[in-house]
Amino acid sequence: MKEILVFNAELMGKFDRKAEQVYDVPSRILMENAGGWVAKKVLEMEEVFTVTVVCGPGNNGGDGIVAARHLQNHDLTVNLILLADPEKLKGDAKANLDIAKKSGINIYIANSVEEWEELLPFIERADLVIDAIFGTGLKREVSGLYSIAIDDINLLARQILSVVLPSGVSSENGKILGKAIEADLTVTFEALKFGHILPPGESHCGEIEVVKIGIPSEAYEDEELPYRYTFPDGLFPSRLFRRRPDSHKGDYGHVLIIAGSVGKTGAAAMAATAALKSGAGLVTLATPEEALPMVPIPPEIMSFPLKSENGKISFEAEKQIENLLNGKTVVALGPGIGTEVGTVEFLKELLKRIEVPLVIDADGLNIISSFSSFPEFKTTTVLTPHPGEFSRLTGLTKEEILENRINVARKYASNNGVFLVLKGYRTVIAAPDGTVYINATGNPGMATGGSGDVLTGMIAGFLAQSEEDEIEEALVEAVGYHGLAGDLASQELTQPYISATDIIEYLTEAFKNHE
Question: Which residue, 211, 227, 414, 475, is the most exposed by fewest CB within 10 angstroms?
Answer without folding.
Answer: 211
